[in-house]
Amino acid sequence: MLGLMQEQPLLISSLIEFADRHQGDGQIVSRRVEGDIHRYTWADVARRSRQVANALDAAKLAFSARVATLAWNGYRHLELYFGVSGSGRVLHTLNPRLHPDQVAWIANHAEDEVLCFDATFLPIVQAIHARCPGIRQYVMLCEADKLPQDSGVPNLVAYESWIGGQSSDYAWPSFDENSASSMCYTSGTTGHPKAALYSHRSTILHAYAAALPDVMGLSARDSVLPVVPMFHVNAWGIPYSAALTGCKLVFPGPALDGKSVYELIEAEKVTYAAGVPTVWQMLLAHMAPAGLRFSTLNRTVIGGSACPPAMIEAFREKYGVEVLHAWGMTEMSPLGTLCTLKNKHLSLPPEEQMKIRLKQGRAIYGVDMRIVGDDGRELPWDGKTYGDLQVKGPWIVRDYYKAEGGSPLVDGWFPTGDVATIDADGYMQITDRSKDVIKSGGEWISSIDIENIAMAHPAVQMAACVGMPHPKWDERPLLVAVKRPGMDVSREELLAFYEGRIAKWQIPDDVVFVEAIPLGATGKMLKTRLREMLKDYRLPA
Ligand code: ADP
């Protein structure tokens, strides 16, 4: 017997319709690329996202066609979130921090047809358009009078003219909730970047879960600042959860330095902020010397990399801000665990509570997790035994988009590439990473790319790249190289060899020359041994 409840597909358009009808006067504040502050409401987002949908219809974009963005966190980007997905197309948020070669590869792989970009990223568009024949419309997120006349970019239109002539009436279509809604490529894997292709259903379920009290805990009384980029797993889903809860949204635009973020928090009475540790390092470094205090901020969710204990302590003890340590992945929409205490922990002394807060946290309902040994058998939840962390759930990838080599799942579980312990209370703690990538300031650097470039240098016989701890960026790449017999190359020459071949911030911080790189029985480089060899090494300041 089936239940007798109404059947309604879970669609992203329902979020913006809800926000329009129930919290239409809720505020959205954005620092713009132009430098000024822009203000409007959820009703305005709804109206203009309907205009976006009409513009896409006018351009005859098919259902599921990809509309890419290269944009900061801001109101126009938010309109695209709802207008593109709501009308049945797929929003593809490109990462502007990548080298233009990588951006072009990803845009072609995704088969993007429209690219909407902030003025800041015009140079990237100029570098890639000739190589991206599938993109038939470029939309610069600006007023008509700000559109450059001599950009060389074909079919370029200003966003305000593109949507300006369109009607603000639009009937959002209904379709299968499993249809694709947005996509995000991750470089946190081996080989080419791979895309997580989210669905309407996965996005809505994630939006519900993220808003729960022990997860992000968002409410209509909050003023929320997502510093985490909208091109980074949909700003951890905050735009969707915000539409559902009716919180105020504050977008930082391109200004992510400590001073700008602090001023925005104070001016917009921000209660809640989200970002990677590096952003908060910059904020705290700005505040400490001047003795600045927060007037309204009371919670901050920190994830993307392990949150250093000193940061949790500084936020809590010095500034009275609760830190919510979160773990997730692009492949997980991204939320997997969040660290909040249970009732029984409230009577523990502060240092015992701190030990718990440092963990990556408990699984959110909707995410199942386990740790397994090399033989694939599940390991005990004793807080000591560590193994490969696997997850499953309705907002976790089953397959990568157009990926070769079949599904990444193992017995129905997604292998995260993280190594972790889980304790008897279900708190997961990351202890290591089995995937060969480096995460610097929340962004991935592929060890293999770095190694391949070094190996292309005539004087290099073998090269290995490992991540080294760094106080600001969490990790930075170090290149370990073996010179070819009879040939010479200096550290400086080798580092210069990377210029133009990779994004500047991905270039290793240093080179260490060694006689040999430790190899395993199958000839694979033994990075664990290499890290042991380098245990006393420190990156140059
Ligand atoms: P995001 O940065 O949004 O979490 P990514 O897909 O870029 O998503 O990165 C996911 C990876 O980042 C994880 O597999 C893990 O290696 C690392 N990571 C994310 N959050 C944490 C955390 N809180 N502590 C340690 N590592 C983390």
From TrEMBL:
List UniProt keywords, sorted A-Z: Fatty acid metabolism, Ligase, Lipid metabolism
* Gene Ontology molecular function: ligase activity
Keyword hit for Ligase: yes
Q: Which domain of life is it from?
A: Bacteria
Q: Where are the transmembrane segments?
A: none
Q: Which SUPFAM superfamilies match?
A: Acetyl-CoA synthetase-like (SSF56801)
> Does the keyword section mention Lipid metabolism?
yes
According to the entry, every stretch annotated as the AMP-binding enzyme C-terminal domain falls at 450-524
Domain AMP-dependent synthetase/ligase: where?
Answer: 30-401
Q: Name one GO biological process term.
A: fatty acid metabolic process
InterPro entries assigned: AMP-bd_C, AMP-bd_C_sf, AMP-binding_CS, AMP-dep_synth/lig_dom, ANL_N_sf
Q: Name one Pfam family in it.
A: AMP-binding
Among NCBIfam families, the record links this protein to: PRK06018.1 (NF004674), PRK06187.1 (NF004837), PRK07008.1 (NF005426)
Q: Which PANTHER family match?
A: ACYL-ACTIVATING ENZYME, BUTANOATE--COA LIGASE AAE1-RELATED
Instruction: Spell out the family assignment given in the record's similarity comment.
Output: Belongs to the ATP-dependent AMP-binding enzyme family.
What is the protein's name according to its record?
Fatty-acid--CoA ligase
Query: Lineage from the top down?
Result: Bacteria, Pseudomonadati, Pseudomonadota, Betaproteobacteria, Burkholderiales
